[in-house]
Amino acid sequence: HKELADTKAALASRKFVEQAKAILIEQRGMSEAEAYKTIRKMAMDKGQKIEEVAKTIIDMSHLWLNQSKRLG
Fold it and tell me: Which of 35, 50, 56, 66 sits most deeply, having the most CB atoms within 10 A of its CB?
């Protein structure tokens, strides 16, 4: 059961990282490698897991999109 839970957690984490990379690629014009390197560096600088940094990027992207829709 633990192995299955660990696998599911790893897949969920990867999903967040992939989504955050896509945001950086689309909104910041980065390559996939640059996007991953940026996320990894932010995680190391902040002492956080890559997944947590990815979630923050996703959340901030949603915030910016919602705010620009209200202002636009």
Answer: 35
**Scanning the structure block, which residue is given the tokens 């996939």?**
32
Contact 42, 53 (CB under 8 A): yes
Q: Tens digits of per-residue pLDDT, 20-49?
A: 999 999 999 999 999 999 999 999 999 999
- CA atoms of 60 and 65, how far apart (whole Å): 9
Which of the 8 DSSP states describes residue 10?
A: H
- State the Cα–Cα distance between residues 50 and 39, nearest whole angstrom: 7
Answer yes or no: are the C-beta atoms of 65 and 58 closer than 8 Å: no
